[in-house]
What does this fold into?
Amino acid sequence: MSGDLSRPALRLSGVAARLGERDVLRDVDLDVPAGTRLGIVGVNGVGKSTLLRILAGVQRPSAGTAYLADDAGRLSETVRTRSRERARRLAYVPQEEVASAELHVGEMVALGRVPRTRPWARGGRQEREIVRAALDAVGLADRIDDPCDRLSGGERRRAVMARGLAQECPVMLLDEPTNQLDVAWQLRLLQTVADRVETLVATIHDLDLALRSFDSLAVLGRPADSDPDTGPATIVAHGPPAEVLDTIRVEHHFGVGSVQVPHPHLDQPHLLIHPRKDRPA
It folds into this structure.
């Protein structure tokens, strides 16, 4: 972890969220220090995507406030930050977004340059170089002139990531970035992105990958006084990955058994998941 813990890039203070008639989040407090990588984990439907949309400023919380830091480290309310300025500070890649089939790959990735260029300055050599570098980072530089509809599902997902990289923002938010990717890119992608942005926040399902890919993890879960299936969630643990994903917490919040073991080739633990054993009555 290389971030300045006294200088948050993002902050949530007392955040709550509703979807229709349902309370999804409540009492969420979170600081994301500049220069760090934060992974957000939790079961399906607990509210991870909602939390990320609030961090990105595309969804207004029903209570509380989301903040985004400027270049000087000053925090301002994210939803009140002008959209163009927000897009210069923060790149957000939602889970469901895919590359438009009507565009060529390079054209789609170049859309990430819109917040940083004037209309009359679009399409020049510098933009082409930035777009190519972003595509090269995700292994698609040779597809720059192909129509997006010629890409596989995983390639389209990587192309959308490249568009986020082309924004050249200090902060990037990724919602389930490893979905639809093959094993090699699941292992490479988070490090590839982290090498190119200052601050990274991503939701992720794979607990072993989460353990090995982030400086810190936040578990989004339903507390004891909330309905275990439909009640509002909050951050129930936040800290170093190896501490957050301990055996008791993984069993309680994810319903599986687990054990951390030394990785034979990496200087970090490896999380083995197994079915939870029935406890004696």
Summary: Residues 4-275 form a domain with the Rossmann fold fold (CATH 3.40.50.300). Residues 11 and 31 are 5 Å apart (CA to CA).
